[in-house]
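On clarity, I found the account of how folds are encoded harder to follow than it need be. For illustration, here is how one protein appears when written out as sequence plus structure tokens.
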Amino acid sequence: MHPILFQIGPLVVGSYGAAVVFAAFVGWLLLPRYARRAGIDPSHARDLMVQVFVAGTIGCRLANILLRLDEVIANPRLGLWLLQQAGVWYGAVLGGLGVGLVLVRRYRLPLWRTFDAAAIPVVVGGGLGRLACLLSGCCFGTACSMPWALTYTNAVAHKIHADLPWTPVHPTPLYEMAAALAIALFLEFYGRRPRLPGTIGLLWLMLYGTARAGIEFFRGDLVRGTVLGVMSTSQALGLLTAAVAAGVLLYRQRRRRLE
């Protein structure tokens, strides 16, 4: 749509980076509310979020390279280019969760309540972050004849994403943003009553993983590959994430009933 937000002489400010920063800032603003609800010091939660955001940013870029490793080995310059492009969301999730677990232990924070506190800010930030994809032209959808279809006509977007079609496509970034905000609303109302610690966080992973798997049916960018030629990599990860989160939640609930 508009990959370049504005340009002043040689200085070019991309809309993708600006949208990501905006989304992270909104999540950062929301975090104290849910940290207090979980009984966690908001300042500790914010410090944790900043470091997790950095780890997630690195993780999504590295995942982008790993999924195209054969191409990167054949053409190392591609690796440098991929480091500057939109990354893989699940790379950000895995990178952020990994570093988050280490920091929770270091700060001696309650693991499951910290997870609950982060759920809504992260899902809102992730949803708003899809504006970056919409503006850049990445994560586009398959051909669409619906009234809400989008046609990317910006020449810069097509230069950045060579496989971006000129024909109407599903606005999949908007689909994912709507799904993420709907999940956040559900978690907000569901979490107003006391729940088993970890329930909100695990529900986030279950709902997002399921929604992402469904949205993948409308994704048109196949550059990230498939699993067994049956489903996209992100679709498989979404279903796996949802299944693991559901299993952990059921286990924790059963264990609590037996105590």
Notes: The mean pLDDT is 83. The chain has one domain: 4-253. The beta strands are 4-8, 11-14, 226-227, 231-232. The chain is about 65% helix and 5% strand.
